Amino acid sequence: MSNSKIPKATAKRLPVYYRYLRFLADSGTQRVSSTELADAVKVDSATIRRDFSYFGALGKRGYGYDVRELVDFFKRILRQDRLTSVALVGLDSMGQALLHYNFRQSNNMRISAAFDDDSKLTGTIVAGVPVYPTSEMETQLRDQQIKIAILTVPDEQAQDVADALVKAGVLGIMNFTTTRLNLPKTVRVQNVDLASELQTLVYFLDNYGDKED
Amino acid sequence: MSNSKIPKATAKRLPVYYRYLRFLADSGTQRVSSTELADAVKVDSATIRRDFSYFGALGKRGYGYDVRELVDFFKRILRQDRLTSVALVGLDSMGQALLHYNFRQSNNMRISAAFDDDSKLTGTIVAGVPVYPTSEMETQLRDQQIKIAILTVPDEQAQDVADALVKAGVLGIMNFTTTRLNLPKTVRVQNVDLASELQTLVYFLDNYGDKED
């Protein structure tokens, strides 16, 4: 079955499953039950079994899932065998932290170019990543065939920079600004709003006695 | 009606609504339709109307919602009138970026204490926030009555530090580590997994032609 038939809620959980399965494989665990998985990744076991069934990965009753098989399987699904290059635009402290972070937990994504107009940074290499002036953004993105960008510019520049990214062929943007971007429907935006996440946590603590979802 | 009857999916959207409404109020806008709101915050208008109806905030047909009334209303709901103090544990580059970020978009939360064992940092003030050695964590959290903490320690320390936080009375943790924390049910954990979010974006671009959810 084609991956495009997988519900998007399921798709969002795949990286979480994969990370934990890789941890199990690294620590020599050979099999895992959906209940153990559920406990570790905080997703209920019925949901896990349903998610896995979309891929035809069926555990055996009384045995569970073979860890190595699942890891190999998710590696293919998530294209872990292929490196995806990502651009980062805007080197404020969050941008710089993301450069150092460089998604090191994952082995298939890498920030390979950063853009900023701070003349102290352009032309240098920060945390292994070359920093270009934004005037070179379009050329570099096209030359390096980068389709995904992380946006950490000041809010008031966000829309203009996003427009330029799209013009240069970017199809996915991880947006750390609080600007809600207006972009063509062909571009996927993932908003990361840390203040709202923290505020939600405050709200839940004020209003709910438990942590169920 | 009590806030605790509000669906949690609705609760998660409240900070997003509030931020945009405040922006409208600041720019002098007096009224807004659910369609305009929908377009700005990328939530469909039927969902917005249903969300608002939980609070008895009903727009008038052909008029929409009164922006000032909604802002005042959300301010009460989200307790924007009261400052919530938050602790940050672990001053790697991400921790330091969060200190500088200090949730400045929001006016009701503030990181008021940071903890780390780097002797170059302890006893100093970074981005306006005092940095204490972790040996003082329990005392400081109790003295300052801090109930919410941001966890940016190395993964292998995450569980131990989280246990110590809970022992000191913390009820909510924003977890930037990739460790899935095992904590009492009374503690709410919000996992922020930037690598998985980016991986999900890559996956969607590979498998879906559009950006619908």
UniProtKB/TrEMBL annotation, chains A, B:
HAMAP family (UniProt xref): Rex (MF_01131)
Annotated source species: Lacticaseibacillus pabuli
Primary residence: cytoplasm
Gene3D superfamilies named among the record's database cross-references: NAD(P)-binding Rossmann-like Domain, Winged helix-like DNA-binding domain superfamily/Winged helix DNA-binding domain
The protein's assembly and partners: Homodimer.
Annotated keywords: Cytoplasm, DNA-binding, NAD, Repressor, Transcription, Transcription regulation
SUPFAM superfamilies according to UniProt: NAD(P)-binding Rossmann-fold domains, Winged helix' DNA-binding domain
Protein name as it appears in the record: Redox-sensing transcriptional repressor Rex
Domain CoA-binding: 79-180
A Pfam family this chain is assigned to: CoA_binding
Subcellular location: Cytoplasm
InterPro entries membership: CoA-bd (IPR003781), NAD(P)-bd_dom_sf (IPR036291), Rex_bacilli-type (IPR058203), Rex_DNA-bd_C_dom (IPR009718), Tscrpt_rep_Rex (IPR022876), WH-like_DNA-bd_sf (IPR036388), WH_DNA-bd_sf (IPR036390)
NCBIfam families found in the cross-reference section: PRK05472.1-3 (NF003989), PRK05472.1-5 (NF003991), PRK05472.2-3 (NF003994), PRK05472.2-4 (NF003995), PRK05472.2-5 (NF003996)
DNA-binding region (UniProt annotation): 16-55
Function: Modulates transcription in response to changes in cellular NADH/NAD(+) redox state.
Gene assigned in the entry: rex
Family, per entry: Belongs to the transcriptional regulatory Rex family.
